[in-house]
Amino acid sequence: MEKTERIKKVFLNVLLLALCVPFLQYCFHFAGEKGLKGAIIESQKPAFSLSSFQNVKFQEEYEKYFNEKFGFRSSFVRLNNQIKYWFFQKVQANGVVIGKEGYLYEYNYIKAYYGLDFIGDDKLEKNVMDLKYIQDRLKEMNKTLIVVLAPGKGSFFPEYFPDSCIRKGGPTNYTRYDSYMTKHKLNYVDMKSWFLKMKPTAKYPLFPKSGIHWSKYGEVLAMDSLLKFIENKTTLKYPTIKIKSIEVSAKNKERDYDIGEGLNLMFQTSTYPMAYPTFEIVHPERNTHKTLVVADSYYWGMFNSGFSSSVFKNGDFWFYNQEVYPEHFKKQTLVSSVDFKNKIEENEVIILLATDANLFKFPFGFSELFIKNYPPK
Length: 377
Prior knowledge:
By secondary structure, the protein is α/β, with parallel strands linked by helices. The protein is globular and about 95 Å long. It has helices at 2-28, 50-54, 57-69, 73-88, 107-114, 121-140, 153-156, 173-183, 191-198, 216-233, 258-262, 300-304, 307-310, 327-330, 340-345, 366-373; strands at residues 96-98, 104-106, 144-150, 188-190, 240-249, 274-282, 291-295, 317-319, 323-325, 349-355. Strands 4-3-10-7-8-9 form a six-stranded mixed beta sheet, with helices on both faces. The longest helix has 27 residues, at 2-28. It has 16 helices and ten strands. It has one domain (96-373).
């Protein structure tokens, strides 16, 4: 009996100690912990005041703050997410879909593949006619407009959609844009169809299993192709890209694992080896043509590789036609706050780029802004 009581006391003490560990971690941060990824808005520690204490606002805000800050919270969240992922095939990430064989998607790419985000022929052709006006007006100014239709994870890997997402497709924004851009003779690169043609024979994966963007290898191919297309449409000569070496890594790096990172799991999801090229810029002396890029997140990899600085003569990157980079890194800089006409006139080439999942809002308000500043004569 006495031995049983000792065991109970030991168990109780261990339990109490375990309950105290998160509080001790909160106070002293004695163990390192990997933070959570994704769009997380953290609560701020509330300032104490007598009035907020009396009306209980301080207590409510502090409780919310503490619930997000207690020791090992990130680890507990990851453990909870891992259990749901392993046993129930569920994820705690908004818009993420688990496909067959563990392929990860964002649902808006599946919507784009089936045309569930189709905005209608009238709107799409009007958008193309506006772009044709911009192209012609820029040509009068000795400048060039280039439109890039980037591939999407859904259109590249529809065979791994979960059965719950499979449905009958309809007209899509991509197919109609492709048709109308051809009809109105727009300078555009159809990288989506190009990637699909390369899919069976590509030496390395063009899309990752647990990422949403084109692979680093595919991105470098796209960079090289884009430069050749611009040179073909203009008399300009740009620097070229030369791949020096390629590292094949079983551990997915950079953006090749961006969806997986956002799931906040304890262990990496199923992946396959990806290729990571090391490249150099050849003929850097040709970096004399300032080039503006207005694009979605599919340009981030190129931008982070120094594409805008080393190839486009420090041209801006207007992310969704909202934020101006690289200036936005130092100080909030919005497209609405810059001298639009001055920016257009200092560039020789303007590139508009979007993946198929964002074509329902392409070109992100750029046409309206351009026409407002350069109305028809």
